[in-house]
Amino acid sequence: MTALARHQAHRQSSGRATNTSRLFWLGTVVAIGVAVAVLSLMIGTRDVPVADVLAAISGDTSTLDRAAVATRIPRTILALMAGAALGLAGAVMQGVTRNPLADPGILGINIGASLAVVVGVAWFGISSAHTFIWVAIAGAAATAVFVYVIGSMGRGGATPLKLALSGTATSIAFSSLVIAVVLPRADIAGGIRSWQIGGVGGATFERMEPVYAFLLVGFVLCLLSARRLNALALGDELAAGLGERVALARGMATLGAVMLCGATTAVCGPIGFVGLVVPHACRLLVGVDHRWLLPFSALGGAILLTTSDVLGRLAARPAELEVGVVTALIGAPFFIFIVRRQKVKDL
């Protein structure tokens, strides 16, 4: 079978979900996202009726309930943005590595960004929001390269199982390094430990403003990589035979994912498993065509993280569970399910 024939067969097999069904699911997912965002504005230490939520969105903060909603708007927007970034980054990483276990957390990228920020704060005294983001992106990129190099050693190259194992080992090692850096610094330990859990509480528009440009560039790079990821799914040789510059395609997609992960970690802390759970769920709805999968993964990630934030507020009232804890409770069993479902020889 020629490369072109195999490419056409792949497109046919990935097109089992029709465009009509995809549009239906798109409308459904958008509606769910709007509903979850409204719930995020309604639910908290003080529950607020829908009418007051709508009034607060329009700018009316004349009552206590409406003022409470106004303080939740930045938090909800941050949850939506961070979830979309992590969901999209996970789908891109799974496409780039052809690894069903790929996730910014499992591959160690989030903790690499976290370690870079902690070292920057503890040893170099960084305090600028823009510096935080650049340092986090640099740490995420360095960790991605490190994990890929380690996972490529030995026979068989960078198999999914070897990448997952090297990423997990790197995460454990870097987590220990974070603790080692923070322990002697009592002056920053409290804030760092709270940030390390991963959350969206305390969000403000001023705090979020520096991250917008980085997220925008990351989103654009990832979404523009959809067609190239479809070609990479056929294998490097076939992708090259179809005229794709494999190294450039993989590099641009990875850069976009790293920017999304680094920027999100800088503002929210490391949040795991969103990028693992969401792409698998979205494939059930729209198939493996990345032109549909990537936008759906972004929407699904926004819904999952915002829902997790709402559940965290309900689970421990009047206190709350950080969203990173909730996503771990959801994602860890799913990770075990994926590992058990895949045959070891296929990993």
Automatic annotation (TrEMBL):
Family the entry assigns: Belongs to the binding-protein-dependent transport system permease family. FecCD subfamily.
Localization per record: Cell membrane
Pfam families: FecCD
Organism: Rhizobium rhizophilum
Transmembrane spans: 23-43, 73-93, 105-126, 132-151, 163-183, 210-226, 247-272, 292-311, 323-340
Keyword DNA-binding: no
UniProt-listed InterPro entries: ABC_BtuC-like (IPR037294), ABC_transptr_permease_BtuC (IPR000522)
Keyword Transport belongs to the record: yes
Keywords recorded for this protein, A-Z: Cell membrane, Membrane, Transmembrane, Transmembrane helix, Transport
PANTHER family linked: FE(3+) DICITRATE TRANSPORT SYSTEM PERMEASE PROTEIN FECC-RELATED (PTHR30472:SF1), FERRIC ENTEROBACTIN TRANSPORT SYSTEM PERMEASE PROTEIN (PTHR30472)
Protein name in UniProt: Iron ABC transporter permease
Recorded topology in the membrane: Multi-pass membrane protein
Main location: membrane
Superkingdom classification of source: Bacteria
SUPFAM superfamilies membership: ABC transporter involved in vitamin B12 uptake, BtuC
Signal peptide start-end: none
